[in-house]
Amino acid sequence: MNESEIYQRINQALAEAPRNQYTVELHLQMLKYADALKNITAKEFCEGVGLRESFGTEFSKMRNLTQRLKAAGLNTDLL
Fold first, then answer.
1. What positions does the domain HTH-like occupy (predicted)?
2. Rounded distance between C-alpha atoms, residue 47 and residue 53, angstroms
3. What single-letter DSSP state applies at residue 13?
4. How big is the CA angle at 27 (ends 21 and 31), to the nearest 5 degrees?
């Protein structure tokens, strides 16, 4: 799956998320695709998904958190 397809899937998940669950869904999607997007910058992520640049910090946090969660046994393929 390429970067563009990932952004489309993230946008679809966000569009389908209940209004009060948008940020939770965004974090979940960031965790889910962290490995596939490990070589892009936070700014590129925000541009690709169509988010304000301020969400770049969240992307960086989730990418770092993913490494720790996977070390503890998380399988991101199941998200």
1. 3-71
2. 8
3. H
4. 140
Closest CA to 76 of 30, 31, 45: 31
For the chain, state the CA radius of gyration: 12
pTM higher than the cut 0.85: yes
Helix (H) and strand (E) counts in the chain: 4, 0
The series of mean pLDDT values per 10 residues for the chain, 79 residues long, is 96 96 97 96 97 96 95 94
CA 72 – CA 51 distance, rounded (Å): 30
Axis-axis angle for helices 22-32, 56-71 (nearest 10): 60
pLDDT tens-digit series, residues 5-27:
999 999 999 999 998 999 999 99
Look-up of token digits 């946008």: 11
- Tokens encoding 75: 């399988």
